[in-house]
Amino acid sequence: MKIAYFDCFSGISGDMCLGAVVDAGVPLKALKKELKKLPVTGYRLSMKQVERGHLKACKVSVVIKPGRAVQAGKTWKDVQKIIQDSALPQDIKQKGLSVFKTIFEAEAKVHGGKFQTVHLHELGAVDCMIDVLGTIIGLNLLGVKRIFSSPVNVGSGFVKTETGLLPVPAPATAEILKNVPVYSHHVHAELTTPTGAAIIKELSSGHGDMHLMDVEKIGVGAGDSDFRHWPNVLRIFVGTALSPTPVRYKTTIPEEKVIVIETNIDDMNPQVFEHVIDLLYKAGSLDVYLTQVIMKKGRPGVKLTALCDEERKEALMKIILRETSSIGLRYYETRRRIMQREIKTVDTKFGKIRVKVSKLGDEMIKTAPEYEDCRKIARQFNIPLIEVMKKSLDKKSP
Questions:
Q1: What is the bridge-based pairing of β-strands 146-149 and 182-183?
Q2: Scanning 62, 191, 212, 327, which has its CA 20 to 30 A from the CA of 45?
């Protein structure tokens, strides 16, 4: 099966997608021919080779003719009619409509308007239409059947708009990227636009490491900005999948970076560990645990491990060095994926009990009763704790 992998290390935008598919081998002439099936005029496509951070990339631009910038319309009703009235294949129409619906829903939510009346604002009508449909058409011409992507770099700082400064990611972009793994790294600028976010949100089957594939073509699309010492490009790898789609792509499991802090201790009163663990949790540790180890000269010891995010690393290391007998520690960065979790309350014959529900997407995978709730009931009614825990899970859908 032919697949495409979007490497969004420098974010994603509509023009970056368009440049990448052209650079991957879609002739501009063929793309223009297919785009003529859209009842949209008043523009032309231009293409040139540029450099972004010492990387050669393709820059495809939608150049609007004077006085024609709003010809395609800016409301959902306008866009829907244009796409449905086009001569494009039905599957391309459906993908285009899903991308634009996502954009309009996000704009309506963050700006407090109604879905049917909200406008595209600075996204522009013609250029946004061509970026989205051109990308979908280009992937179709490349023979791509499924799309996957890396986590998305959104950038940082602020972006100037017609309504003033907005934080990065822009509100609409942030709304669109819910349940998509994102991060911010290196560049103090907007890297991901609402159009790019909607394209990857709706077209991608999942987000993670590159799937095992035989790469046949690589397309490099350039963004507008040219940052010093940073290649502002989107790379698309096109090729044949060499194994069945991995489980991680069936339901997106958000990935996050964590810091692991460790130290080995063999000369401290074990009673102190409870105090230290409490302090670490209060300081924001994600998890703390102890592991039995054998140290030099056969001495039994304990490895203290704490997980945290980058911001809390220094605070947690200070606590460990101040509150334990350790005179040194080690730390390193790793990544983790966790299921979506929420607490629900169930009614039992003993009373209300909180239950932790873990999900993959919309599928409930695991449930576990809250220990303290169950213990309180067990003591109150003088019944076995294990019976209370079992009764709390009698209902399949808490």
A1: unpaired
A2: 191
**Residue 36 belongs to some domain of the structure:** yes
What are the beta bridge partners of residue 152? 182
Distance CA 196, CA 199 (A): 5
What is this structure's pTM? 0.64
In a domain, 369, yes or no: yes
Domain boundary among 207, 226, 249: 249
C-beta separation of 83 from 97 below 8 A: yes
Strands 330-337 and 255-265: antiparallel
Which of 223, 249, 275 corresponds to the end of one domain? 249
DSSP code of 251? Answer: S
What is the number of structural domains in the chain? 3
Contact 118, 110 (CB under 8 A): no
What is the amino acid identity at position 372?
E
Tens of pLDDT, residue by residue over 160-207, are 877 678 899 999 999 999 989 999 988 999 999 999 999 999 999 888
Burial of 172 (0-12, 13-18, 19+ CB in 10 A): buried
Judge whether 5 and 211 are in contact, CB under 8 Å: yes
Q: Is 248 exposed, middle or buried (0-12, 13-18, 19+ CB in 10 A)?
A: middle
Q: What is the mean pLDDT of residues 133-143?
A: 97
Angle subtended by helix axes 194-203 and 90-111, to nearest 10: 130
Q: What is the mean pLDDT of residues 352-378?
A: 84
Structural domain span for residue 137: 2-249
3-state class of 287 per DSSP? strand
Q: Are residues 113 and 205 in the same domain?
A: yes
How far are the Cα atoms of 40, 162, 190 from residue 122, in angstroms, in the given order? 18, 8, 14
Q: Give the single-character DSSP code of 245.
A: P
Contact status, residue 93 vs residue 269, Cβ threshold 8 Å = no
178 and 62 assigned to the same domain: yes
Q: Which residue has the tokens 């250029």?
A: 127
Alpha helices in 177-312, H assignment, sequence order: 194-203, 272-282
* Structure confidence by residue, pLDDT tens digits, 14-65: 999 999 999 999 999 999 999 999 998 888 999 999 999 889 999 999 988 7
